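Q: Sequence in, structure out?
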Amino acid sequence: MFTSLAGKTVIVTGASKGIGRGIARRFGLAELNVLVVSRHINEAKKVADEIGRNASAFAADVSEADSCKAMADAALERYGGIDILCANAGIFPAAKLSTMTAADFDQVIGVNLKGTFLSVSAVLPAMKAKKKGRIVITSSITGPITGYPGWSHYGASKAGQLGFMRTAAVELAPFNITVNAVMPGNIFTEGLEGLGQDYLTSMAACIPMKRLGTVEDIANAALYFASEEAAYVTGQTIVVDGGQVLPESPAALEQMGD
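A: Exactly. Output:
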């Protein structure tokens, strides 16, 4: 049985949809105070309303330092502290190298990688004052482990998050602040609903467990990193992908036993 986190405060960025929404809802079920952060306040309010009285909404652009500071200030004002940051906000517009512009690259790095740095920086004063904190980054298997055409900027940002995580974990260990990352594989979110069943079936066929992951699968991993039981775990990653990165070739999947 895990120690209850009820009454703790978590900030979840990029929480209006997909994995972020799943993380926010899971922490709400665990009875934490949840600051639901999105660039669009109306979308954040919808998720906060789904969670209930322990949640509230805030609009922030994680690529801007002042916006991240305002986010941290809001959590302190509303809940009196910041115990956990789930740095989840990210974008993934596709662009192959032949057409990608410097602006395209900067935008993805600015939100995904710089946004992680700015979000973490914003919550550190509160966590250091308490001499305790949990930081959970949503990275990806794309970049650190795999590649996909059109996502070189995205892959760079996700690999960069892990480099940031490891040094941050070393620097923050004396303050009892842990920094870890969840690395999702193919997860079923709203963005996949319009792609059709044939596409979803082909994606699932590449995964040994023969299904796409759920946002709850990622949220449960994030909750573990935030738990008291993970107090001695820092600078680490959990790959949540149903075994997607394991087969050395499609032939390996064909040889799976009954």
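The chain is about 45% helix and 15% strand.
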